[in-house]
UniProtKB/TrEMBL annotation:
This is Adenine deaminase. It comes from Quadrisphaera setariae. The record marks H222 as: Important for catalytic activity. InterPro entries: A_deaminase_dom (IPR001365), ADE (IPR028892), Ado/ade_deaminase (IPR006330), Metal_Hydrolase (IPR032466). The gene is add. It catalyses: adenine + H2O + H(+) = hypoxanthine + NH4(+). Belongs to the metallo-dependent hydrolases superfamily. Adenosine and AMP deaminases family. Adenine deaminase type 2 subfamily. The keyword Zinc applies.
């Protein structure tokens, strides 16, 4: 199978993966045992049986409670190391990975424990795994804006070791413009900016407009609804903005991978790339996503190569590092 062979050998960047969404059932159970956390599920099969989603909200209702097993600095290091090890095995050359500090600080885990645990894994990855890695701290849009402000303030001592900030969690009723001031402060602190515009959410085109015009993002996560707004798409293409698509995730959050929309972005010259999102929950890491999309959309080998190329061009790596890979 030539398509599978091409994907199997193709280096790429991962620009949209939530570290907490890489918590595989095996590690979940191991951390629960290590920390004495009582879970309702006792086996890998039982954990997997809870992974039934038909919306973003139904996914988040499983995703957040699982994080209770993440308690110590070592837990966060182990989580990130497990992901980066898988990424290395999938020829991921660079990974710009999300984490959700408020999902941990809100249950009493100090910000420093989370960040220092993750940084230990991220800063070892280039030497030990050959993966250039960086952290993107996401604000939870369904928490108060003041909590995002506090999270940004807590991050400032680490500003030179955190690449960017993002916006995730339940999008309904939580437009990007609500966070424009926090994002402006984050940019002042040297962070790159990205925002989730999840698939088919209420108000999605207005959210895309706000992300582009009010927040002035440096990238958009998901965002495929932009194909419905040609003037916004033209603006994004003109700015060379990256779009981080996640086909398998789309298939859970909606009922489709949104392959036609992803292909439309590709044809429009947008820097769209393919990513894992929450691979422990949605059934595949980067390569599984790329192959699934390639098959459903009947992509040519040149299209698949372009998607991988776009992942480097949409990354926030220094230009000379990007050039090495193209
Ligand atoms: N948090 C983790 N995964 C997410 C997604 N796909 N959308 C919004 N928030 C998330
Ligand atoms: Zn996401």
């Amino acid at each position: 199978d030539p398509l599978a062979a091409l994907v199997a050998d193709l280096p790429a960047c991962e620009l949209h993966v939530h570290l907490e969404g890489t918590l595989e059932p095996e590690l979940l159970l191991e951390l629960a045992a290590r920390n004495g956390v009582e879970l309702a599920t006792r086996t890998v099969e039982e954990v997997r049986a809870t992974h039934v989603f038909d919306s973003l909200a139904s996914f988040l209702a499983v995703y957040y409670p699982a994080m209770d097993v993440l308690q110590t600095r070592r837990d966060f290091t182990d989580l990130a190391t497990a992901y980066l090890t898988r990424a290395a095995a999938q020829d991921v050359r660079r990974a710009e990975v999300f984490f959700d500090p408020q999902a941990h600080t809100s249950r009493g885990v100090p910000f420093e424990v989370v960040v220092e645990g993750l940084l230990e894994a991220v800063e070892r990855a280039p030497h030990e795994l050959g993966v250039d890695a960086a952290l993107i701290m996401c604000f939870l849009r369904d928490h108060p804006v003041v909590s995002a402000e506090e999270t940004l303030t807590a991050s400032l001592p680490y500003a030179d070791r955190i690449l960017g900030v993002g916006l995730d969690s339940d999008e309904r009723g939580h437009p990007p413009a609500d966070f424009a001031a926090v994002f402006a402060r984050a940019r002042e602190a040297g962070y790159r900016l990205t925002v989730h515009c999840d698939i088919d959410q209420p108000g999605t085109l207005e959210h895309l407009r706000q992300a582009l015009e009010d927040v002035r993002v440096d990238r958009i996560d998901h965002g495929t609804n932009i194909v419905e707004a040609p003037e916004l798409l033209a603006l994004a293409v003109e700015r060379g903005l990256g779009f981080t698509s996640c086909p398998l995730s789309n298939g859970f959050v909606t009922e489709q991978m949104k392959a036609p929309e992803i292909v439309a972005l590709l044809r429009a010259g947008a820097k769209v790339c393919v990513n894992g999102d929450d691979p422990a929950y949605f059934g595949g890491y980067l390569k599984e996503n790329l192959l699934a999309l390639a098959r459903v959309a009947d992509l040519s080998p040149a299209d698949v190569v372009q998607l991988a190329r776009n992942s480097f061009e949409a990354s926030w790596a220094p230009p000379e590092r990007v050039a090495e890979h193209l």
